[in-house]
Design brief:
Blueprint lengths: L11 E6 L2 E3 L4 E3 L20 E5 L1
Antiparallel strand pairs: 1-2, 1-4, 2-3
Length: 55
C-alpha cells in the first residue's frame, strides 16, 4: 500500500465480532446501525467475524 502525501496511508480496516467493532484504533460497542438484532448470535456477530479491509 502506498502512503498518500504527508505519509498517511489511504486504507480502511474494520472488524465486527462478539458485539464489538474495531475501526483501527480501539474496540467499542457495536450498535448495528439500528438494522440488526444485537441479541441474536448472527446480528451481534457472536457466531462469526465480519472483516472489511480496503486500501
Amino acid at each position: 500500500m502506498e502512503p498518500r502525501e504527508g505519509g498517511v496511508e489511504d486504507a480502511q480496516h474494520l472488524a465486527i465480532w462478539d458485539g464489538r467493532i474495531w475501526t483501527g484504533w480501539s474496540w467499542r460497542s457495536y450498535t448495528g446501525g439500528g438494522v440488526f438484532n444485537l441479541h441474536h448470535p448472527t446480528g451481534g456477530h457472536y457466531d462469526h467475524i465480519h472483516v472489511n479491509m480496503r486500501g
